[in-house]
């Protein structure tokens, strides 16, 4: 028969197990926030829709925040990459908006993009410059 003390001890152990991974993950995120920092050379290739031109450009990552990294500001880029390498980006150029997601692995990254204004989709690859 389980006593109240056994039940409380079990609940305390379960609570410790649930809190420990979250705390460890938060500490890891703080340590690695700049893991993917630097300038990235990106190539975006269209796959569907009326978009037919391949685009190459640079993005900059600082403390996990993404911005346009070229010398001449052709577009505005914003987004983030988390310590696990998950990327979310939005690029705006005039009336066009492009949303992209992807994943970083080492010095390379890749993912998919969509342009709702032009009804296009495609893929992209990037390499740390």
What does this structure look like?
Residues 1-24 form the signal peptide. Keywords: Signal. The protein starts with a helix and ends with a strand. It contains one helix and eight strands; from the N terminus they run αββββββββ. It has two domains: 1-31; 38-128, Lipocalin (Beta Barrel), CATH 2.40.128. Strands 1-2-3-4-5-6-7-8 form an eight-stranded antiparallel beta barrel. With 129 residues, the protein is an alpha+beta fold. It is globular and about 40 Å long.
Brief summary:
By secondary structure, the chain is of the alpha+beta class. The protein has one helix at residues 4-31, and strands spanning 38-48, 55-62, 65-68, 76-81, 86-93, 96-105, 108-115, 120-128. An 8-stranded antiparallel barrel has the order 1-2-3-4-5-6-7-8.
